[in-house]
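Q: Predict the bound structure with flavin mononucleotide.
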Amino acid sequence: MVSYVRPVTELIRARRSWRTYQASRPRPEDAEQIRSFIAGLGRPPFGSRVRIVLAELGHTVGDRVKGTYGVISGARSFLVGAMDQSESRPEDFGYLFESVILCATSLGYGTCWVGGTFDRSAFADAVGLAGRETVCAVSPVGVPAKARSTIDRLFAATAGSHTRKPFAELFFMDDFESPMNERSAGSHLAALEMVRLAPSSSNRQPWRVLVKDGAYHFYLRRTPLYSLLFPKVDLQRLDMGIAMFHLEQTLCEQGVQGSWRTAAPSGDVRAGAMEYVASFVP
Ligand SMILES: Cc1cc2nc3c(=O)[nH]c(=O)nc-3n(C[C@H](O)[C@H](O)[C@H](O)COP(=O)(O)O)c2cc1C
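A: Predicted complex:
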């Protein structure tokens, strides 16, 4: 569990992907706070080694940030994250990087997960890429511009970023034939709603959660062929880690402690083509 100055539910609701920024850097004291937040991060659910830095990047073409294919404009500071994928789980990256994104949100900055539309090598020096590490994702940290650029609006519109799938399509009780809705979710409502509001690559929302015997079992419903579009990093497993962080942090702030285990539920839950990922056991 990490500690924010505002309830995580507020931060999750406030966060939006911003791709258009004023040409300024975070205030030095805020940058310092983000860096000490990163330095204090604990181990992620599967214990992978993830490195995240807040870097200042001066390379721009006009106001477009070099290496982002013109998608991000104005920003001068970026979170850059790297991991050796051969010995790590992508969910761990998603989990930790999202916790830092929400730290930047708590300080009032705009962010945007960028895992696909960027040139990984343009950010390699910023994170001091070593050995077999890959730059898995980056995010600008800055003050959003007054208006979104055309490309920003286009990205958000194409992904349908302002919408999420209905609760009953994502969450289930006891087996996958029994969808939950907001009324039947009871004490699980807040934590599951925070999963539903999570960002995901192309807003595909691949997370499914089965609540069974008091545990939250996370499954991945992959978007067919999506991994062919972005072969370097398994973005949908990053998405899973983000959702895992939202659930755990929300429960922890409600006083519910627990741990992550690889313990698929017993019995016939009819997961079909879904991949089991992990369970949060309070
Ligand atoms: C793992 C991950 C990778 C993403 N990669 C990109 C990207 O490469 N380019 C981009 O413009 N947005 C990217 N996004 C942002 C999503 O499109 C965005 O989160 C989603 O549409 C939901 O919108 P929201 O963040 O405003 O709620 C990514 C998001 C996630 C979680």
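A: Residues 16-17, 19, 71, 112-117, 137, 155, 159, 161, 199-203, 235, 238-239, 242 surround flavin mononucleotide (CB under 6 Å).
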